[in-house]
Structure formats: C-alpha cells, structure tokens
C-alpha cells in the first residue's frame, strides 16, 4: 500500500491512497485505479487538497469540465488527471462530476491518439464508474467501444483500468451482452494470459462477471480461454489458481467449455488442486469436477483414472460443508458402474 501525504494549514491529509489487490480475495475489487498518483506542482497539489477536503468542490469541478474541452492537450491532460483524483478520493464528487457534464468529453479522451491522454481519460471514467448511479450514464454515453479500443491498444495501465471500467459497467446486467459484442472478450482473454499480475486479476474478474451470459461464454471458449485458465490453475505460484478456477466454474455450464477444458488437460490439474490446494481451491475444484462428470460417463472414468477418489475422500473429512457435500456426490458418481450407453462424442474423447 502506498500513500501520498500532504500538509495544508497545519492539517495532514492521507487520502490519496493506492490499495493493492488483496491476495486473500477471490477476485480483484477494481475499486479504483492503482496506478499511482500523478506528479503535481505544489500549487496544483494545494488546489486538489482543498477540493478533496472542502464541502463545496463545485466551482473546481465546473472549471475542470470546461478544461476538458480545451484545444490544448496539456490542459486536457491536467483536467482529466485532477478529475480522476477527486473522483477517486471523495465519493460524493463522482455524482457531481457526472452531473457537471464530464462523461462525454472524458469518453472522447479515451479515443485520443495521445496514449497518456487516453490513459487519463480511461482512469477518470473508471473512478466515475465506481458510483452505481453513473454506470448507466457512462454506458449510454457510448463508453463501451472506446474502452474496448483502449483495452486493445492502450498503455498497460490503460488496459488494466479499461478492464476494471468494463467490469463496473458489466455489473449492470443489460450491459454484459453489449460489452461482449464489442469485442472485449478476446482482449480480456489476452490480458489474462499475457498481462502483469494486476492485469491478470482484473481480467479474470471481468471475465467472471461477463461470462454469466451464455453468448459471452461461447466467445471466451472460441478465444481460447480454457488453455489460459488451465495453465494458470496449474501454476500454484501465480496467485491465480482460485481466480482461474472460479472463471472455469462459470464457463463449464456449456458443453463446448467442458470439451475444451478436458482437451486442454484440465482434469489432472483439477485433481491435483483437490489434493494439494487450499481449502477454497479444493472446494471450487470439486465443484468443477462434479459439473463435468454429472452427465458424462467418459469424464467420470477420466477423473477416476487420475486418482481423484482418495483426495476427494480426504475432502469429505476435512473440507468446508459445501466441499464435503460436493465431494461426497462426486465420489458417488465415480463409483457408479460404467453405463453401457455411451454417446458418439464420448467415444471420440475416450
């Protein structure tokens, strides 16, 4: 955690805080940007301190929104930076900034060819999206496609913050399909596979939310998400095992995802997680194995051959209540006699 401290008129301000993602949480919260504070001169810092401490920041907000329309890129950058900061550190300002008309000009900045200006615009939009009242306004103002473009070609920070902003917009159910249709899913899969640790966490969170919609599940599978997820689940040093497994658990409700998971070597990885993972990891791995075995004799045989029954028995004795229930049900399935009725697809996979 990093904190910017300021003193003004004998009063100390420690509100400019960067919260690192908690590794104890299943997913990143995407509660605000964590890209660090922008360098400011002492006079600019003083103005920001007053704005964050004051009960009335309306005049400053109106001036900043006006500056967003400036013909000077530097003035636009400064305005977007300050809007980003006062939206980040004082929740009440998020509604004020939106009502002052900042959303549309900020979206224009997200489409800027100047990568730094684009990054500032993305980050300001992210911080405004933390307010539930602003999510609909941001989406209806046309933010989704520019955010997806930034996710594709922006700086690493812009990509991460675009993923977070899209996650926030996806918390409105009606936006999920629109975000998927805009081309976000393959880009999030790419960020999940090749981004830094924060990018991976933010991408997994966004994908988990977006893939509650069936058409987005299909897009993710077509984009090769299962290969990425299996690799992350297999890497116990990545801090991504449980996050990746949760995304898998959402996807495997569609047959194509089950097939892809098995083809990418997911079964032995999941069995290993049940054996040596944390309690939470064991539970979600058992849930996934039960999902893929529930209606497939072939998959049950594969899971049993990987030696799943002993660690599942151990889980029934030491796991959480939910883990015990899932493990018991899965053991019962695995111990059932093999049916003589096997589908053509199962013969191919056997």
UniProtKB/TrEMBL annotation:
Its EC number is 2.3.2.27. The keyword Repressor does not apply. Keywords: Repeat, Transferase, Ubl conjugation pathway. InterPro entries: ARM-like, ARM-type_fold, ARM_PUB, Armadillo. Pfam families: ARM_PUB. Functions as an E3 ubiquitin ligase. This is RING-type E3 ubiquitin transferase.
């Amino acid at each position: 955690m990093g904190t910017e401290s300021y003193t003004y008129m004998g009063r100390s301000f420690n509100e400019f805080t960067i919260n690192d993602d908690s590794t104890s949480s299943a997913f990143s919260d995407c509660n605000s940007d964590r890209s660090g504070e922008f360098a400011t001169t002492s006079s600019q810092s003083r103005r920001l301190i007053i704005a964050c401490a004051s009960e009335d920041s309306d005049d400053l907000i109106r001036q900043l929104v006006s500056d967003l329309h400036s013909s000077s890129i530097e003035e636009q950058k400064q305005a977007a930076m300050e809007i980003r900061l006062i939206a980040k550190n004082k929740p009440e300002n998020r509604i004020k900034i939106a009502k002052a008309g900042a959303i549309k000009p900020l979206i224009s900045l997200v489409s800027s060819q100047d990568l730094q200006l684009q990054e500032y615009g993305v980050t300001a939009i992210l911080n405004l999206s933390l307010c539930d009242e602003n999510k609909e306004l941001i989406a209806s103002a046309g933010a989704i496609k520019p955010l997806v473009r930034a996710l594709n070609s922006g700086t690493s920070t812009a990509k991460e913050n675009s993923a977070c902003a899209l996650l926030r917009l996806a918390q409105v159910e009606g936006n999920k399909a629109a975000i998927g249709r805009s081309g976000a899913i393959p880009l999030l899969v790419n960020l999940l596979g090749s981004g830094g640790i924060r990018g991976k966490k933010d991408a997994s969170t966004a994908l988990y939310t977006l893939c509650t919609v069936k058409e987005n599940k299909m897009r993710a599978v077509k984009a090769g998400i299962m290969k990425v997820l299996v690799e992350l689940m297999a890497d116990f040093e990545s801090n991504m095992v449980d996050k990746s497994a949760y995304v898998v658990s959402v996807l495997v409700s569609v047959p194509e995802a089950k097939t892809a998971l098995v083809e990418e070597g997911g079964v032995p990885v999941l069995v290993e997680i049940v054996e040596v993972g944390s309690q939470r990891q064991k539970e979600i791995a058992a849930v996934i194995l039960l999902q893929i075995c529930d209606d497939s004799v072939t998959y049950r045989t594969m899971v049993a051959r990987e030696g799943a029954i002993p660690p599942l028995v151990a889980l029934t004795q030491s796991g959480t209540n939910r883990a015990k229930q899932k493990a018991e049900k899965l053991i019962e399935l695995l111990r059932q006699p093999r049916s003589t009725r096997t589908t053509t697809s199962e013969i191919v996979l056997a």
